[in-house]
Amino acid sequence: MHKFFLMAGALLGGLSVAIGAFGAHALKKVLEQNNYTEVFETGVRYQFFHAVALCIVGILILQMPHKYLTYAGYSFIIGTVIFSGTLYVLSLTGIRWLGAITPLGGTAFIVGWIFLFLAVWNAK
C-alpha cells in the first residue's frame, strides 16, 4: 500500500505543477474572462498539498503500518479528485452547481487528516 500512495502522491504532485502551469499560460485568458483564476489556483494548491500528504502517508506506512493510514491515503485521493476536480471544471465551464459538490471533497480532506491523526495517536 505504501508504494501505491507514494506513486499517487508523486503523480498528483507532478500533475498539480503541470495543471498550474497550463492554467497560468494556456488558460489564462479563459480563466480571467470567467473571473475564475483564483478558483483554479485554489484547486491546484489543494491538489499539491494533498499530494505531499499522500507521500507522507506512504512513508509512514513503512514505519508504522496502520489501517487508519490507508484510510487517510484514500481520503486524500478522493478529496483531491472531488475538490480540485470540481474547481477545475467549474473554472473552465462556469457550471456553478459544481460548487455544491466541492465541499464533499473538502470533507474528504478533513477526514483524511483525522485518520492521519488517529494513526499517529495509536502508533506503538
From TrEMBL:
A Pfam family reported for this protein in Swiss-Prot or TrEMBL: DUF423
Domain of life: Bacteria
Assigned keywords, A-Z: Membrane, Transmembrane, Transmembrane helix
Record's protein name: DUF423 domain-containing protein
Entry's family note: Belongs to the UPF0382 family.
Keyword Transmembrane in record: yes
Chain segments annotated as transmembrane: 44-62, 69-91, 97-121
InterPro entries reported in the protein's UniProt record: DUF423 (IPR006696)
Primary localization: membrane
Organism from which the protein derives: Microscilla marina ATCC 23134
GO cellular component, one term: plasma membrane
Membrane topology: Multi-pass membrane protein
Localization in the cell: Membrane
